[in-house]
Automatic annotation (TrEMBL):
SMART domains: cNMP
SUPFAM superfamilies, A to Z: cAMP-binding domain-like, Winged helix' DNA-binding domain
InterPro entries cross-referenced by the UniProt entry: cNMP-bd_dom, cNMP-bd_dom_sf, Env_Response_Regulators, HTH_CRP, RmlC-like_jellyroll, WH-like_DNA-bd_sf, WH_DNA-bd_sf
Domain Cyclic nucleotide-binding: 9-129
Gene Ontology CC: cytosol
UniProt keyword annotation of Protein biosynthesis present: no
UniProt keyword terms in alphabetical order: DNA-binding, Transcription, Transcription regulation
Protein name in UniProt: Crp/Fnr family transcriptional regulator
Transmembrane intervals: none
MF terms in GO: DNA binding; DNA-binding transcription factor activity
Keyword Transcription belongs to the record: yes
Domain of life: Bacteria
Pfam families noted in UniProt: cNMP_binding, HTH_Crp_2
Length: 212
């Protein structure tokens, strides 16, 4: 559980506090496509993603999957449900093999959230989520599909190597056929290339020019 020491929220803890934190936490490994929680599950634990990538999603009235947010390693997952003491409002699935630290939120709140430094960092964490949501809304309003795809690949250069095109298309809210066509064009122009079937950036400057 020494991974907790490497996370910015906890690296200033005293040895006593770290021992307490570890006593109320456990780590769990998840396989690709495994569900972390379902909509309606109780938010008993504060979830810290330490490796991998997960997607939080819902289904619309036609039962189509709607991606709300993708979380990368080093961040909390859906912590607003903990703060608001509500059940999870959406589902969460691993997009690759992942590891998550589960922290007993009731005990965490009791022992740690009376400290000002923790409250400030938690506010920053929520602010980042709000900014990410703003970017998500903004990117889905952009009509330039090339810019939308390029920015996603640029911002998720490591995760993109392990995500299937159908997942990327869902996140960007575009047709898979459109995504495939655009990726093929970027490969033809020497911006991207395939490495054992995985997307990798070949020309970072050219890629960034598509959305900047």
């Amino acid at each position: 559980m020494n991974k907790l020491k490497n996370y910015y929220l906890f690296n200033g803890l005293s040895e006593k506090d770290m021992e307490l934190l570890e006593s109320i936490s456990f780590e769990k490994s998840f396989s690709k496509d495994e569900i972390v929680f379902y909509k309606g599950d109780k938010s008993k634990y504060l979830l810290l993603l330490v490796s991998g990538c997960v997607t939080v999603y819902k289904h619309d009235f036609k039962d189509n999957e709607v991606v709300i947010h993708n979380f990368k390693a080093g961040t909390f997952i859906a912590e607003l449900a903990n703060y608001e003491n509500i059940n999870y409002p959406a589902n969460c699935r691993c997009e690759m093999d992942s590891k998550i630290i589960f922290i007993d939120y009731q005990k965490f709140e009791e022992y740690f959230l009376n400290k000002k430094e923790f409250l400030l960092i938690f506010i920053k964490s929520l602010t980042k989520k709000i900014k990410t949501l703003e970017v998500f809304i903004s990117s889905n309003m952009v009509e330039n599909v090339d810019a939308k795809i390029a920015k996603f690949i640029f911002d998720n250069s490591e995760e993109i190597k392990n995500l299937k095109q159908v997942k990327v298309a869902e996140v960007l809210n575009i047709r898979q056929e459109t995504l495939s066509r655009k990726l093929a064009q970027m490969k033809k122009e020497g911006i991207l290339h395939d490495k054992k079937g995985k997307i990798e950036i070949k020309d970072e400057k050219a890629l960034s020019s598509l959305f900047s």
